[in-house]
Amino acid sequence: MPFPFEIAGTEGRARTGVLKTARGDIRTPAFMPVGTAATVKAMTVDQVKQTGADILLGNTYHLMLRPGPERMERLGGLHKFMGWNKPILTDSGGFQVMSLAGISKVKEEAVTFSSHIDGSKHVLTPERSIEIQADRIGADISMQLDQCVAYPAEKDAACKAMELSIRWGARSKARFGTRETQGLFGIQQGSTFEDLRRQSSEQLQEIGFDGYAIGGLAVGEGHQAMCEVLDYAPEMLPADRPRYLMGVGKPIDLVEAVYRGVDMFDCVLPTRAGRHGQAWTWDGPLNLKNARFAEDQDPLDPDIACPASSQYSKAYLHHLIRADEILGKVLLSWHNIAFYQALTAAMREAILHGRFKAFRRDFHARHVSN
């Protein structure tokens, strides 16, 4: 394995540790800000670093359309291109198989896309996905190409997608080979069907990956259904490798997933919410457009070591959002990423000192999730 995974502490199924990579350590539980098109929206790289993020996520589909994988390689790869010297994980493009179903076609050999930008045709095989991620973009962690189904899914459709994902996983692994400084994660699929997820997990482990993701959630099933899957899905994966829950989620989702044994997360929610005037806090989300903040001189959170969280009043943020000033989107995005990093840091600390069950209970008592 190119990346040692050292578990420093556990409490129940929750664990905290460090995934060691050539570009730096990833402390788990970890939240990866999403840098879809070589940028975390409305934030500079320095701002993202200041929040405490150890790793970013890049989007293969968007980067292969703009600026293009071969150009990315000529420009030195994604790290150099965007000025980020820490680890990067790239998704495989598989999520777009589902989200862009109207302009994509899935066959055994490949998925064919019509670009949402200009309508041009693009063919993505498991092998091409790995080439783009590992060789052109230069990701530290690449993801196998998979097929994700939306919720609710008929069992037959979920089974076919899961089995195709296994075959694509084997092809992804064959193309990836063995590398000293880069890793490859497999993706468990199976929708909300326990037997399908068990089959997926067993076959992924036969192929052998550096880490394992839980895919096919955060696709419309809701918090309760997600938790029901997480009651069994993480423990089907190897205990000595990192477990990554893709595309999740709200703060309460992270807490419940960590409680059930998940180590890594990504989601566009923090920056998307920030661009629309919403700030996430320990007490839940705040809509800064609301008139009740017009003269509120308190900061969002004085205890978070982020200027956006501690140095600007809610009244000022309310003004910026109501005036549609760009700075408002920047500051709220910055705060939200800082809050998510503070949340994962608090969970790491709680697990390490045997206080996570109490942390979870107190979080539920205080946090109102909308």
SSE layout:
Elements (H helix, E strand, L loop, with lengths): L4 E7 L2 E8 L2 E5 L1 E6 L9 H6 L5 E4 H6 L3 H6 L2 H6 L5 E4 L2 H6 L4 E3 L4 E4 L6 E4 L1 H12 L3 E3 L11 H22 L6 E6 L5 H14 L3 E4 L7 H9 L12 E3 L5 H9 L4 E4 L1 H7 L2 E4 L2 E4 L19 H4 L3 H9 L3 H27 L3 H11 L4
Parallel strand pairs: 4-5, 4-14, 5-6, 6-10, 10-11, 11-12, 12-13, 13-14
Antiparallel strand pairs: 1-2, 2-3, 7-8, 8-9, 15-16
Helix pairs in contact: 6-7, 7-8, 10-14, 10-15, 11-14, 13-14, 14-15
Question: Please, could you describe this protein's structure?
Answer:
42% of the residues lie in helices and 20% in strands. It contains 15 helices and 16 strands. The protein has helices at 45-50, 60-65, 69-74, 77-82, 94-99, 126-137, 155-176, 194-207, 222-230, 251-259, 269-275, 307-310, 314-322, 326-352, 356-366; strands at 5-11, 14-21, 24-28, 30-35, 56-59, 88-91, 104-106, 111-114, 121-124, 141-143, 183-188, 211-214, 243-245, 264-267, 278-281, 284-287.
